[in-house]
Amino acid sequence: MTWLDWHRASELDAVAAHEHRRYGRFDEAEVLFARAALNEQNALDEVDKTKTRTVSILTVSAVALWYKSREYEIAEKLAVTSMAKLELHSFATKELQALLQAIWTESSMRRAGISLLPGQVTVSVSGGEVVVGAAPLDLIVEKVQTIQSMFYRTVELLKGVELRVRGAPKPEIQNACRPWIFQAAPGSYQFSVALREPEQPNFFGDDVNPREVASRFLHVVRASASGDEQGLLEAVPDVKYRATFLKLARNLVPNGRVFTRLEIKSVGDDGSATFTPESRSLINETLRPLTSSPDPSGTATETIRGVLRAVHLDQNWLEVVEGSGQTIRVVSLAEALDDVIGPMVNKAVAVRVARSTRQVRFIDIEAED
Predict the structure, then answer these.
(1) Which residues contact 242 (CB under 8 A, 6 or more apart)?
(2) Contacts of range 283-288, beta carbons closer than 8 Å, 24 or more positions apart
(3) CA nearest neighbour of 183 among 120, 253, 262
(4) Pairing of strands 189-195, 317-322
(5) What are φ and ψ of residue 110, in 5° steps?
(6) Amino acid 6: pLDDT
(7) Domains of the chain
(8) pLDDT per residue as tens digits for the range 319-352
(9) Each residue of 280-290: pLDDT tens digit?
(10) Cβ-count burial of 111 within 10 angstroms (0-12 exposed, 13-18 middle, 19+ buried)?
(11) 152 CB burial (10 A radius; 0-12, 13-18, 19+)
């Protein structure tokens, strides 16, 4: 067989593996990923090594497939050997570094007796004030908190938990599926996130495979970032959960000043969710039909801009200080969620409201910083 024959065989196995993984048949998927990896490695062995771009593509593909099959030692050996002995393009070296970081992380966790669910995701923040390997601390902490919230919300969605409006996730969910953060390979500012595997084998019950959490999370963020309403509907059938995910995804959108791009991708996969300043209008367009005015009388809506100075969700109000120094109290926060509004305190916000002669009623809020 020629290298192209091996490569085509690998592609067929990889497509079948992804299809199995899409429908939650993860054990079958890993077997097919391993077969695809072996075929791709055979293609790499046969190809003319002077074809550096083809060699680079095949190398990354083979290592990624071994990683997806959870054959970490084979993946590591192939990556290290290839970088030492083969002439590779810079994009391939960067991808292999990211894969090696993921492999070393998961291997060290295994040695410590800690098991992670498949689907480690890498978050990359770039542009604006962000430089290679460094970023403003408050920016990164805020994005980490939002991604953690989205993971917890995904677990709650899959478990069929009623939408949580106030407070943190139940301790059983926090303890069973706690997100972990890892350093990632160099490049802008990057970090990786993965979920620890539940210690209780039956935590999700018989209807949900715990390995589905990361894939559902990625499905949600990709559909949110691209404005794919149908894809989001498939991933999140419940309208209240759908609106919640969109609001959390909106918190990830860059403002174009401090940073200009945020990308989330699964290690070893080509597809990614990319947030740019333009993503805000896409998300708002998808969100608007899901966020109705609390006042059915036809009261006109407006947007208040200022700094969010105080929030009391239990008493159902928040206060915004406008640029003129005037403080405006907004009430009826039924649509406001802890993990959406919390990161906005003491930051510039835009609050959409319905104003009457007696009060200013809440509709929606988004960060402007």
Answers:
(1) 232, 233, 236, 290
(2) 283/224, 283/225, 283/227, 283/246, 283/249, 283/250, 283/253, 284/250, 284/366, 285/227, 286/224, 286/227, 286/229, 286/232, 286/246, 287/243, 287/246, 287/247, 287/250, 287/364
(3) 120
(4) unpaired
(5) -60, -45
(6) 95
(7) 3-111 (1.25.40), 121-290 (no CATH), 301-367 (2.40.50.140)
(8) 999 988 899 999 988 777 888 888 888 989 999 8
(9) 999 999 988 88
(10) exposed
(11) buried
pLDDT exceeds cutoff 60 at 296: no
User: For residue 162, how many other CB atoms are within 10 A of its CB?
Assistant: 9
Encoding tokens for residue 114? 């800690």
CB distance 286 to 224 below 8 Å: yes
What type of residue is 331?
A: V
pLDDT at 361 over 80: yes
Compute the mean pLDDT over every residue in the chain, rounded to the nearest whole number.
87
* Integer Cα distance of 39 and 62 in angstroms: 8
Instruction: Give residue for tokens 């990632």.
Output: 184
CA–CA dist 347, 309 (Å, integer): 8
Nearest one of 334, 10, 343, 320 to 166, comparing CA atoms:
334
Calpha distance 101→186 (Å, rounded): 10
Burial class (CB in 10 A: 0-12, 13-18, 19+), 145: middle
Tell which phi-psi region holds residue 55, choosing left (phi > 0), alpha (psi between -120 and 50) or beta.
alpha
Question: Residue 276 in contact with residue 225, Cβ under 8 Å?
Answer: no
For the chain, give the longest Cα–Cα distance.
Answer: 79
- Half-sphere exposure for 61 (CA within 13 Å, toward CB): 24
How many CB atoms are closer than 10 A to CB 247? 24
